[in-house]
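Incident log, support desk, overnight shift.

02:14 A customer reports that sequence design results differ from what the structure should imply. Their input is reproduced verbatim below. On-call engineer (initials T.W.) acknowledged and began investigating.
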């Protein structure tokens, strides 16, 4: 049975997606579409993308199929256009103008398929003074203000891996955008271009905080606010074994339970008294340092104190709640997050491991009726 036959239980069953291979947010967005049941064909380039990871372990390419097309070859663009003509969505992550120069830009694709949703994933967006400049996650986050609100006031802002920019501000906004445009295309027959820029998405993530800033409820500096570590009952604390506990006891009833279990209920009045926050922080710090992370985890287990252990990547799959829910799964010998979110009818799953470059050319040529993919080995 082909992969196409195995796929299709998710809510996007029957949706066809072409992904022009890249790195970072584009592949993650295409993985999410594939996890939701879409038939995603990744168009890999000869020689790969240059990403220093073995394709067998690149789980952002799970649930996809791969063909290899050299877009710089004379017939390369026409092969991609054959795929685009049969697709619902195309995703690319080149710098502005590159897809056009390669012959697979929106205008050319829409000439073949007017209903195509053409998703463009970049850091700076398709226009603006920096649109053609290179960059990565952290450089896109920096000018939005989102990076600058994270971290201790006594240290530089930390690098939040590439989760906040590439994936939250980039991939997730691209997926929302192409699905909204697909809804419009199916209602009207008209495709369109979706310009998903990390700078736009990362800025948008801070919408609530901008409202608080305007209302005078947020100070424009790090470590001085309710949700940025400035508040002693919302943050992380080191334990006796050098590990950490996370505290989010914001509401009064949760705060009281937190103090009771921590053993410092005499600090109850400090919740609303900012002048006493330093004393409260010192008391909380000292208490957490008196026991190990696992000991504190046992103390707070089953409570509504909103306290949890800070786990590592390898520890997380073994957390009792996450294990019970199946938040992580093993596929092909790789422990990885399971598809999310969950659906009561159109269940999702990992049905295939990372697509290997070019391995699915024959199946895609048959299933999508694009025989030219097989010319010269595809």
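02:41 Re-run completed on a clean worker. Output:
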């Amino acid at each position: 049975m082909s992969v196409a036959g195995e796929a299709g239980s998710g809510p996007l069953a029957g949706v066809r997606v072409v992904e022009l291979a890249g790195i970072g947010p584009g592949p993650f967005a295409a993985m999410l579409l594939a996890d939701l049941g879409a038939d995603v064909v990744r168009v890999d380039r000869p020689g790969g993308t240059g990403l220093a990871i073995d394709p067998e372990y690149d789980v952002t390419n799970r649930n996809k199929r791969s063909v290899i097309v050299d877009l710089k070859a004379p017939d390369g663009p026409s092969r991609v256009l054959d795929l685009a003509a049969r697709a619902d969505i195309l995703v690319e992550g080149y710098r502005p103008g590159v897809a056009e120069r390669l012959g697979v830009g929106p205008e050319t694709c829409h000439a073949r398929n007017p209903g195509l949703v053409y998703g463009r994933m970049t850091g700076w967006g398709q226009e603006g003074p920096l649109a053609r400049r290179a960059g990565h996650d952290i450089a896109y986050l920096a000018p939005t203000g989102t990076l600058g609100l994270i971290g201790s006031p006594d240290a530089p802002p930390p690098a939040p891996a590439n989760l906040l920019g590439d994936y939250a501000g980039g991939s997730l906004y691209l997926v929302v955008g192409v699905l909204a445009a697909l809804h419009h295309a199916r209602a009207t027959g008209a495709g369109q271009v979706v310009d998903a820029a990390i700078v736009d998405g990362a800025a948008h993530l801070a919408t609530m905080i901008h409202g608080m800033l305007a209302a005078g409820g947020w100070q424009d500096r790090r470590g001085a606010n309710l949700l940025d570590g400035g508040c002693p009952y919302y943050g992380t604390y080191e334990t006796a074994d050098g590990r950490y506990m996370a505290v989010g006891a914001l509401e009064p009833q949760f705060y009281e339970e937190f103090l009771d279990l921590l053993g410092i209920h005499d600090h109850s009045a400090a919740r609303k008294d900012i002048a006493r926050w330093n004393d409260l922080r010192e008391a909380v710090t000292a208490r957490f340092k008196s026991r190990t992370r696992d000991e504190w985890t046992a103390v707070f287990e089953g409570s509504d104190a909103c306290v949890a252990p800070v786990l590592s990547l390898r520890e997380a799959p073994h957390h009792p709640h996450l294990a019970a829910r199946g938040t992580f799964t093993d596929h092909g010998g790789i422990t990885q997050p399971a598809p999310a979110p969950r659906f009561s009818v159109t269940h999702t799953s990992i049905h295939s491991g990372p697509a290997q470059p070019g391995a699915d050319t024959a199946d895609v040529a048959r299933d999508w009726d694009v025989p030219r993919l097989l010319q010269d080995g595809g």
